[in-house]
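ESCALATION

Customer reports they have been waiting on this structure for their group meeting. Please prioritize. Original submission:
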Amino acid sequence: MLTNHAKLMQFFSVAKEVIGRKKLQKMIYILQKNHVPFEEKYQFHFYGPYSEELSLRVEELTNLGFITEEKEDKSSYYQYNYKITGDGKEFLNQFALDMPDFTKKVDMLKSKSSRFLELVSTMLFFDDLTKSEVVEKVHVVKPKQKYSDEEIREAWLFIDALNETSPVS
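Update from on-call: job pushed to the front of the queue and completed.
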């Protein structure tokens, strides 16, 4: 059971800080789709792929004091910021995890906005479709986002770049 918690702790150890619940959800999903062995199950939700399992694990890790969740008032909404704690690092040291090095991927993901990661994760959710069908699907399931052709082109390039950073086996 704790192996999946430890995998998340490895993520927080690499990421240092994650700003936003939506961004956290999208980062883990995109890493999962890039063969990082996270095991949380995802369903398509209002903001794209969402995992209730991930939310519960993060809540558990916060309650255990292994990560901090700082709630920041942004006037019209709250933003949650996550960081690993000293206790979290000690917990992580108790595990010998067989995880690939995903540091470059995390750095790439952290540099992008939640809106962009929502687009990328939505595109990856429909990866069984052709590229043109994916674009059509994005416009159907995300009409309010009004993603431009340029944003979609940038997302395809980003997906390709993530695939290129895969560690050599």
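Sent to customer with the following note: The chain has a mean pLDDT of 94.
Escalation resolved.
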